[in-house]
Amino acid sequence: MTTRTAALSALLVLGTTLAAPVTFLSVQNEDQGATKIIGELAREYQKTNPASPYTYQNAPQTDLAQKLQLLAASSSLPTVYNIDQPALLGQLYKTGQAADLEATFKKLGIYNTLNPAAVALIKRQNDGRLVTLPLELNIEGFWYNKAIFAANGLKEPRTWAELVKDAATLNAKGLQPFAASGDQKWPLTRLIGGYAARKYGYDVMDRVKAGTLKLTDPGFVEAARAVQDLGKKNYFGKGVNTVDYATAVDQFLQGKAAMIYMGSWVLSDFNDAARNKIGTQNIGLFNFPAVTGGKGSTNDWSLNTGISTAVNQKFNDADLGNWIKYVFTRYGNKALAESGMITGFTVTQTPRNLPVLTSLTQTKLKAVKNGYLWFEANFSPKATSVATDNAQLLVTGDITPQDYMSKLQDALK
Amino acid sequence: MTRIAPAPLAERSGRPHPLAERLQSVPLFVIVALVLVVTVYPLVWMLLSSFKTADEFSGGVIWALPRTFSFDNFVRAWTVGKMNLYFVNSLLSVIPSLALVILMGVGAAFGLEIMRWRLKTSVSLLFLLGIMIPIQMVLLPLFTMYFRAHLLDTRWALILTYTAFGLPTTIFFLTGYFRNFAREIIEAAVVDGATIYQVFWKVVLPMVMNSVVTVALVQFFFMWNDLLVSLTFINNPDLRTIQAGLLNFAGQYGQREWGPTFASVTLAVAPTVIVYLLLNQKIMKGLTAGAVKG
Amino acid sequence: MERTLRDWRAITVFVGPALLLFVVILVVPIVWSLGYTLTEGSVIAGFHFVGLSNYVRLAQDPAFWSALWFSVKYAVLVSAGQVFFGLMLALLYSFYLKRSSVLVRTLVFLPVVLPTVAVAQLFVKLFAIAPQYGFLNSFLHAVHLDDLVQPWLGQGGSAFWVIVVMDVWKAMGLYAVLLYTGLMDIPEDTLEAARLDGAHGWKLTQFIILPLLTPVIVTSLIFSLNGTLKVFDSVLALTGGGPGTSTTPLTLYMYKTSFSYSQYGYGSTIAVALTLLCMIVSLIIIRRSREN
């Protein structure tokens, strides 16, 4: 090799290490939620660090799993990516395509920007490892229309029996008790999971994973039957399985349905004055009620950290470190101030005019004793499909609670 | 024997066709009106819906007219939905694929049906089997191949796939055509001393032009409606095709904005309709003058 | 003559490019995929050889059989519908509307050029029950048949028919034009001779027009079955295979198994079954058309 070509290739190598582009593969549109905040911060960073240009890529949610498989197979995953399968993420961690963020954040000296509760939640879902970013911190529960409740003499129900009774009262007056998107399926299984958590305690699904509880145990069948009953009595309204997400939320926001079980990510819709016809002051939140003979407590809440977002270990060098440091020390404040989003990053400046529902959610979050994950969080993708697909048949009465649970138990193997 | 294409039936019969006479009792107007309503009403509804707000999708009756003719949805479809871009992307992958499929397909059909060689039956059979292959069968190996060849996120990935998957039907169709009509003419031309390439360009191509229109139409239908290939091989949102782009207005939790969705659909459809209306006469003329023989 | 038609170089020029592309993009990946059917695992976790166990599993998998049944049922009905309505429209164009058929032909053809995803989104709304009644339910309500108002897409049985209706609606214009072309090709002499023999109306259609049109009908059927057996986007965009898995065709089951469940070996096995199905159907039609 001549000196000239050596110098040239050295220059080329140098050139490639200097350029540290960051690509974010997201299921959200570029102007929505966490993707918007990250995009804005990354572009800010790019102004002073032109060698780290930011690119946004999008994969539709329905297509994400396939996309990740293919990208991972050819080891061409982008720098930061959404990932909706914990099992796949575990494999990616082992093959060096997902970073250990605890180590990364500690090395950068910014581990204290992470909310410990959010970290614990992520670790529980990923075999004790912090492999995703807590871009959101969501609390789930029943949001209800205070005016409708007051007009019908109802109070926040504390037990499942009270909830069903309230629903019956509303239904008798021609009001739809619950809005639910059966088209999305997961809003239905959330109810089964919530019931099970009240029956067996917040660690119920961890025990299922460990094999000490079986989904065919009577408590689970009872949970499935309880949800099926709501469907059979038409408490979800007409054609629940065709109701898409936006429709369900609109039914609630237009006062056509008294309650909706949903995570706090829905606040962005609640805060949209054009869509919210009932007013934010008029919305309350209560936790999943207690069930007869249950071991769970209503101080336990269903929590999640939004769609899992991982960082590719392949690109996890000093340059990316600087980028991470810049973006994620600012992320929590910016998300709260601009979008009223509650995230798993600590907030150092609380904005003065926080939307009322955001404050409400924050209050509830502070009181959480134990968090539990959603019903399918520990399931394989196959078992998740079985759980969600059959939930549609469950609420229409096309499958018995026993069948539902035994099919699901079979799919866990 | 040269086959003279007969003039279209309808234009030949000066008097009403017997079939028409016989069925005159059925009110023609009703049938035609029904056909038109069934076809056109959903499209008109789609256009009107693109002006509706989220509220109007959840309240009122379905055939209500939009309350205002606001262009907000279109603005959102245009800026966030990038429908203009997706339309161009679709065109830029479908048109070259069509050209390639036709060129390669006519050549191969000619070679397989007219030329004489030992393995031609086996090769024909191989192509025939290709008709039946579902694209899912090859998705993962193809992805790996394209990745290694640095063709992912390029239009070439789409063009190569569309072309390869279009070839079997094209060849099947055109060999059928050559089998029925072309052999004698070609043999006569060869006897007259033309080279095989001259025969191909001067005799064969002009002769199949009409069937080419038909083939192109069917291939266009399949390529334009592809979702799987473009979803799989294209990551970059700026290279997305219409079908993949339309999946856009659903968010992380399954939120769908119906107004912008229908505005996007309208924007996506409008240029197609205009192009189609402009070319329509040509397409139909080509079709009616051509022959579809299996 | 013989020498010209046996020119190896010319044969290479004509067939070579198509064959090369075909082999690289189709044949090689198929063999590759066939290899996957003997393995278990995923692209990330790696593959290991499991012999024929995927095929054994396939034979015993109720989800596979129900998807297969759905695919067959769907393909037969939709292809029959597309070609039947195409034929009816073609007869309408050529015998009723004659020269004035241009406008009708154009309008009926329009849905053909619409993206399937768009059409599906449209049909979701037309057959909706909530938040507002879709077209069908509004109609039933208007004529006081409220008992019949139902979530058409929320029940396996009726969702199947919505998919069928949509796919027939979308493609009948294409087949109408193809068949119209065939009708134009029937020589007037033949029709005239038949008329002199006393064939009129339906008799003429049945004994003269349909037999002469058979090759075109067969071609249309092949095109149609070729598309419908591989149906993917309309189902995905309209029902996502639900409710439950009641509208899941083989293609979607294969896609989910491979890409959502990361079971590539088993997914490829389902793809092999789908390929065999497509082959059997196409071969039957091609054989019958050759006999004619």
From TrEMBL, chain A:
Keyword annotations of the record: Signal, Transport
Keyword field contains Transport: yes
Signal peptide: 1-19
SUPFAM superfamilies: Periplasmic binding protein-like II
Pfam families hit by this protein: SBP_bac_1
Family: Belongs to the bacterial solute-binding protein 1 family.
Protein name stated in the entry: ABC transporter substrate-binding protein
Organism the protein comes from: Deinococcus aquiradiocola
UniProtKB/TrEMBL annotation, chain B:
PROSITE patterns per record: ABC_TM1
Keywords linked to the UniProt accession: Cell membrane, Membrane, Transmembrane, Transmembrane helix, Transport
UniProt entry tagged with the keyword ATP-binding: no
Any one GO CC term of the record: plasma membrane
Record-linked CDD domains: TM_PBP2
GO terms for biological process, alphabetical: transmembrane transport
Membrane topology type: Multi-pass membrane protein
InterPro entries named in the record: MetI-like, MetI-like_sf
Matching Pfam families: BPD_transp_1
UniProt domain ABC transmembrane type-1: residue ranges: 87-279
Chief location bin: membrane
Locations listed in the record: Cell membrane
Spans traversing the lipid bilayer: 26-48, 86-112, 124-147, 159-178, 199-222, 258-279
Family: Belongs to the binding-protein-dependent transport system permease family.
Protein name: ABC transporter permease
Organism: Deinococcus aquiradiocola
TrEMBL record, chain C:
ABC transmembrane type-1 domain mapped to chain residues: 68-285
InterPro entries cross-referenced by the UniProt entry: MetI-like, MetI-like_sf, UgpAE/MalFG_permease
Superkingdom, taxonomy of origin: Bacteria
Cross-referenced Pfam families: BPD_transp_1
GO cellular component, one term: plasma membrane
Keywords, sorted A to Z: Cell membrane, Membrane, Transmembrane, Transmembrane helix, Transport
Localisation per UniProt entry: Cell membrane
One Gene Ontology term from the biological process aspect of the record: transmembrane transport
UniProt topology in membrane: Multi-pass membrane protein
Ranges that cross the membrane: 12-32, 74-96, 108-130, 159-183, 204-225, 264-286
Signal peptide: none
Recorded family membership: Belongs to the binding-protein-dependent transport system permease family.
Protein name per Swiss-Prot or TrEMBL: ABC transporter permease
